[in-house]
Amino acid sequence: MKKVTDAPFLQDFVEATQNIYRLGWAERNGGNISYLIGEDEAKEYLDLDNALRTIPTGFDARGVEGKIFLVTGAGKYFRNVIKDPAANLGIIRVGADGASADVLWGFKDGGRPTSEFSAHILSHRARLSVDPENKIVMHCHPNYTMAMTYSHELDEAKFTRTLWSLNTECIVDFPDGVGVLPWMPCGTPEIGAATAEKLKEFRIVVWAIHGIYAVGRNMDEAFGLIETVEKTATTYLIGSHLPIVNRIPDDGLAELCSIYDKKNYRKDFLPELSEKYK
User: Where do the H-state alpha helices sit in the chain?
Assistant: First the structure.
């Protein structure tokens, strides 16, 4: 059996934690990631018949029973993942009852999944219902995205249109827009359920005064969505004290979608143009 530390899914995961920490998006034990591993891929590196131990999920995880996830540990720092992956990460398989999970690797010394574990599992379940190829749920605290929520209206259409209008890449990269949640206590079933519901229609959900969630079929997709939002939030705030005299016009946004064949853009966010570029 191959070593887990040689698995591409683990190496991608570790690299993502280091990039997020390097960019300052995961202070202390902030931030968490989960990666849905296919069973065929997992069995090359794991003994699926012998769990190290069984832990309670603490919520109803039915809907993803039997699925295998690599996930960050509770109270763990992203900067330490590269030094000792098995102490800071773990691989679990959700039990048939949805109330327990088998630890297949990692979580040394009694470690457990992130306190946002319920938000991750509910998000995977929701996202798989609209995209069966989704594998990644990523959460972190990008500085400027957080700061943008201090001063910008938390209306999804307005928030999305601001981002779209300030960076040509935005409507091309996330034509489905950005979901926005008001501030809510983290680590609760309520914020997990609210996030999951948003992820049925968006691949990005901004948690006001907290951070961001993004999903994808691979690490690059999820990470790239956060990068694009954060870059645009940065330029928004750099110029926020100045009058904005130039931005991408609404007609230009719809034209971009036509050029790049993004017919799935949120037409309700640009209702006045939906007929012209449908």
Answer: 8-22, 39-42, 78-81, 85-88, 117-130, 143-151, 156-166, 168-173, 189-198, 219-238, 250-259
Structure tokens at 273: 């143009």
Is residue 149 located within the same domain as residue 251? yes
Q: Which of 39, 116, 153, 221 is catalytic?
A: 116
Both 275 and 164 in one domain: the answer is yes
Residue-number span of the structural domain to which 98 is assigned: 1-115
- Written as one string, the DSSP assignment of 117-175 is HHHHHHHHHHHHHH-TT--EEEEE--HHHHHHHHHS---HHHHHHHHHHH-HHHHHH-T
Residues 119 and 196: beta-carbon distance below 8 Å: yes
What's the pLDDT at 243? 87
67 phi-psi bin (left φ>0, alpha ψ -120 to 50, beta other): beta
Q: What's the rounded Cα separation, in Å, for the pair 65 and 84? A: 28
Crossing angle, helix 156-166 and helix 250-259, to 10 degrees?
70
For the question of whether the overall pTM of this predicted structure is more than 0.90, the answer is yes
The count of structural domains within the chain is 2
My answer on whether 1 and 101 are in the same domain is yes
Distance of CA 99 to CAs 55, 132, 136, 245, Å? 9, 23, 22, 55
CB 48 within 8 A of CB 42: yes
* Pair (24, 93) in one structural domain: yes
Q: Do 203 and 132 meet the contact criterion of CB atoms below 8 Å apart? A: no
pLDDT in tens, 217-262: 999 999 999 999 999 999 999 988 888 889 999 999 989 999 999 9
Given a cut of 60, is residue 276 above it in pLDDT?
Answer: no
Q: Which of 121, 115, 74 is nearest to 93 (CA)?
A: 121
- Name the amino acid, one letter, at 24: G
Is 116 one of the annotated active-site residues of the chain? yes
